[in-house]
């Protein structure tokens, strides 16, 4: 009887151990199930992300292969309906240039003794007997009608200087704007100017082109319906000199009397 008691005690102990292992086994199985579910969710999420990032694929028949070849379709950019395409700005128009040369019948010089010369150089200056003034005329009918004038430049070529022009006694060479008509005669020496001495044409005896802006004068002529733009040149101070040869400046005329071919020009830029 004593032996049987011990055996039952041992069995009882084993039973207790087995009973204790049941909850442990359930916990392990529960944790394993959670881990499996987590792994499935992870891989499913990864695969779903790949599917979202994978571009659309279309299949085209390949004559050389029995299986279709996948072709990627590039993503398209959709422009919102309210967006307008930008247009490049319209380029500014480029002005044209007209070069009007002086009228050889109306340029030259007139002296205070009523001497008129329209077949040689344009001369301005003095000697001990007289004073001389130069004249220039440009035909405005050579300009296109209904033009917008941007600039106008008078250009004359100073060929040479005799004596001592541009001195303290003579000053600079001035220019008048006037209308002396269809002929050059002795009355033009003292004809009234539209604007007298409005700027300096030249300040020195250096040979070369002398230029002056005459936009306002040209606009006035066109606005008044004048057929010509005409100018008179003279020194700032006009008193007779002390020598026979005098103090003069010579400019090339439309006759090309000095042989330079640099005849007077009126450069007009317009639209």
From TrEMBL:
<keyword id="KW-0812">Transmembrane</keyword>
<feature type="region of interest" description="Disordered">
    <location>
        <begin position="57"/>
        <end position="95"/>
    </location>
</feature>
<feature type="transmembrane region" description="Helical">
    <location>
        <begin position="20"/>
        <end position="44"/>
    </location>
</feature>
<dbReference type="Pfam" id="PF00688">
    <property type="entry name" value="TGFb_propeptide"/>
</dbReference>
<protein>
    <recommendedName>
        <fullName>TGF-beta propeptide domain-containing protein</fullName>
    </recommendedName>
</protein>
<dbReference type="InterPro" id="IPR001111">
    <property type="entry name" value="TGF-b_propeptide"/>
</dbReference>
<feature type="domain" description="TGF-beta propeptide">
    <location>
        <begin position="126"/>
        <end position="241"/>
    </location>
</feature>
<feature type="compositionally biased region" description="Low complexity">
    <location>
        <begin position="63"/>
        <end position="95"/>
    </location>
</feature>
<keyword id="KW-1133">Transmembrane helix</keyword>
<keyword id="KW-0472">Membrane</keyword>
